[in-house]
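I have been asked to look over a protein record a colleague put together. Alongside the sequence sits a line of tokens, each denoting a local backbone shape. Please read both lines and tell me whether the tokens look consistent with the sequence. I do not need a full report, just your reasoning and any doubts. I have pasted the whole thing underneath without changing anything.
>
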Amino acid sequence: MSRVVVITDPACDAHTWHGHVERAERLQAIRRAIDLADLVPALEIRRPQSAAQAAVEAVHSARLLQTLRQLSSYGGGQIDADTYVTADSWDLAHLAAGAAIDAVEAIAGSAVQRAFALMRPPGHHATPIRSMGFCLINNIAVAARYALDRLDVTRVAIVDFDVHHGNGTQDVFYADPHVLFISSHAAPLYPGTGALDEIGDHAAAPGGTLNIPLPYGVGDVGYQRVYREVVAPALQRFQPELILVSAGYDSHWSDPIGPMALSINGFNRISALLIDLADQLCDGRIVFCLEGGYNLEALGAGVVGGLRLLLGRDPGADPLGGVAVREPDLSNVIRTVQQQHPLLRTE
């Protein structure tokens, strides 16, 4: 059985807005699912430290941070139609970013190889200059930047399987040749970014971004093809020293805001593949960071399956089952990515 560190804190429940899908009940549902699965004794659960301001400023502009701090000090409010701040959000956003850093530190040069940062608010939509899409600070980007700057890591891969494109993470590292950002996402869908031809800065980091926009209705079969035929070869050619995963569970067929058809079994196959690749490429070093997922039962089941796999266990049965859909054929999408992306071209 592998040693797995989970970084989490119920304090982040204070970041919640009545009626919003990104609310305290999400992490509460995950905690219940972990308890019911009797996983607590097998996990090394730690409370996070708040991210140092310098670590956050390495990713985000002073203006963004000033806006967050000021709005939080006023008792909260709306940044935009999707994104809110409460009186506690300034502190909790730093705690969530700190959890991602702590997860990376936990697996750097120690016996721990696997970690999961189970915190909110999520982060992958937060750009260097804008909080958006439920996200205040880009937790996974802060952790990746910290690993590169402080932990003697020279190549980091970030894989984002949230149903929405991780535009913020892409923006942070678009010109950084030390980071490979891979996103599989529904398109067209919020935030409207993540096209096939967004492959990284052509001068500084050609091929440093790999986007796989998918039509609505893709399920287990399509996602399995994408991860085996596109994601795995790209990671193998990039040869990362650390894999970070933006783990969003809103591609599940039951999700209220996602148009995809993945089952929990489908998520488990993605997670198992990424864990296997980490074992092959970077001595098993892999960190999952929670992003989206808004059907509470599916969210809890997705995280439990991921944790069981990180522990080296069978992920267990899918408690929600699948859905009968006729999936779109992804052959053209996969072929186009393979022909256009520098990491995948064979000529």
